[in-house]
Design a protein that fits this description.
By secondary structure, the chain is an alpha/beta fold. The protein is 39% helix and 14% strand. The chain has one domain: Alpha-Beta Barrel (TIM Barrel). It is globular.
Amino acid sequence: MWLGAHIGIADGLAEAVRTGRNLGCEAIQIFSKSPQMWAGPPVAPDAAVAFRAAVQAEGLRATAVHHGYLANLGSPKKATLARSRRAFLDELERAERLGADGLVFHPGAHLGSGVDAGLATLAESLRLALAKVPDGRVRILLENAAGQGTALGSNFGELRRVLDAVGSPERLGVCLDTCHLFASGVDLRTEAAYGAFVDRLRAELGTATVRAFHLNDAKAELGSHLDRHENIGRGQIGAAGFGFLVRDPLWAEVPGYLETPLDEHGYDRYAADLRTLQELRSPGGPAAPAAPARRRETGRISTVK
């Protein structure tokens, strides 16, 4: 797995790349604007060029833009849905200007309209966005939810339904958040549990759809449905679970982005988490044996076990 982190852009887009690389990142995720705003200032052409140049110069393996928090592409409320679709298209176009590999977003919530209605609205929202950027290179990545409230996408089946309904496999994928997985009831803590996770993922979603991970330990217990991130090895998942994940050859060319808690010392906790993950990834690393090799599917579903 290519290890990285979510890096702030307060000092500039290109500086975020250099900051990430100095921390030891092989990949970085950013917000392209404030996540608490519906719209932000346009990405300046020179800033986009500088970002792309920095990514190449620093040798990053992958980059992602994370969508803001306000949009709900599955909303039953017409005004909110229209505003969300405009915001999503803007985010997609910003990611394209930056040359990002992925645009990660939360699928939203049905707010009482029901899962079927929410997934249908979400899929239509994505079809509309893709139609407006027909030659886009950024892959849109649905992030799994922790299962809270009426959130969509908290299980592999719902994510698969959206991918099938949109019907553009070359432009869509998923980003699996480890804290959200654990909170939704997916155990990763033992070799047997991790193997069961991969087998279930293969059968219900397909491993080829997984284009990124968010690497977060979990404060709350298995199946809690609470989205509470913790630093690697300090939460309920524990270092062993991350060892199985980052050493699995299945994810050798998939980025994993830290979104773990920070404090007044800035990115020091990121640096510590990256060191932990790097040690776990190394052959003979601490806390977890290497996971058994599994073949990554090239299509939707493989019967390989």
